[in-house]
Amino acid sequence: xxxxxxxxxxxxERRPARAPHDAGEAVVDDRIYLVQRLGAVTVGLIxxxxxxxxxxxxxPFLATHGERxxxxxxxxxxxxxxxxxxxxxxxxxxxxxxxxxxVLMTLGVLFLLSGLLNLAVLRTSFNLLAFRVSxxxxxxxxxxxxxLLGAYxxxxxxxxxxxxxxxxxxxxxxxxxxxxxxxxxxxEAAMREAEFAVVQHYATEDQRRRxxxxxxxxxRTDRRRVWMEFDARR
Length: 234
Hints:
With 234 residues, this protein is mainly alpha-helical. Helices cover 61% and strands 3% of the residues. The chain has 2 domains: 30-166, no CATH class; 173-233, no CATH class. The protein contains 9 helices and 2 strands, in the order ααββααααααα. The chain starts with 6 loop residues before the first helix and ends with a helix.
C-alpha cells in the first residue's frame, strides 16, 4: 500500500498546515536573509575601498600617525586589517545568510571594542593602528551597524513566526536525528506525509495508527524507529 496519497493536494497545501514539530520548515521571510547578506557585502566593500586606498600610500606599517583617507587616518597595519575583514565579510555573504549573520555580530562586537580601546591610546606610542578621533567614531558606528544587521530578525525576545531564526529545528539538528540510510530517508518522507494527512483529515487507517503510535515518543529518531517497526511487521 502506498502512503503517498493525493500528491497534488499534498504539494499545494503542505506548507500552511504542517504539524507543529515541523514548524522549522514553515514559510519564512527571506527578506531577513537578504538584509544580512547585503549588509555583509556593503560593509565589506566599504572596508575594501578604505584598505585599498591606504595600500597605495607609503606610510610605514606601524606608524602611529598615518595618512588620511576618506577623512580617517590609516597605516599599513590598519590597511591590512581592513582588507582582511572585508574578505571575511564578502566570503561570509557568499557562504550563506546564517554565516553572514554570525560574522556580522562577531565583527560588530570587535569593532566596538576596537573603537573604545583605541580611544584610550590616542596620541600615545601604543596607537599601533594610527587611529584618530574620526577613526574611533567610524569603528563605533560600523561596529554598531554590523551588530544590528547581524541580529536583524534573529535576536529578539519574541521572534515573528516568519523569521527563519524562529525555528530551532532549522538551526540545530542533532546528528543522531538525521536519517542516514535509504530506508530511513524513505521512512522520514512517509512520516511527514502521514502527519500531514492526519492534520488534513484524509489519512488512511494505517497512517492514523502509525501517527498515534509515534505520539508516545519525543525524539525524531524514536518516531522514525516506531514507523519502521510498523514496516517490519508488514
